[in-house]
Amino acid sequence: MSGLLSPFGPPGQIVRMVPSGRVVVLRDARILAEYREVLLRPEFGFDRARVEEVLDGIRLHGETVVGTPLVRPLRDPDDSMFLEVALGGRAEALVTGNLKDFPPDRRAGIAVLSPAESLRRLARRGGRA
To answer: Mind listing the domains of the chain with CATH numbers?
Structure first.
């Protein structure tokens, strides 16, 4: 979501990589519902049709995953679902601007990276991020 709010920063760069397959968005119905709810909040001012277009892109270019319940859930169930999906999809990393919401002792072996760190990792693998 932050890729829409910060289209020229690291989150936006990551979003632009999704259609090429360089970055794969793992999702389930809970995550799509969360994205819709947040993006339609009046303070963001996004047009409903644009939000649906973004969600369609996530459906088209993303991968549906069945989340794996966490042994040690996070404090916020809205955060837990992202980690559950990352775990269920065997993600290399969960990319978020809210690192503090994913304490190291609760990550279940999943790397949790900021968008900037994710771009640095992608760049180290070759090619431009």
So the answer is: 2-123 (3.40.50)
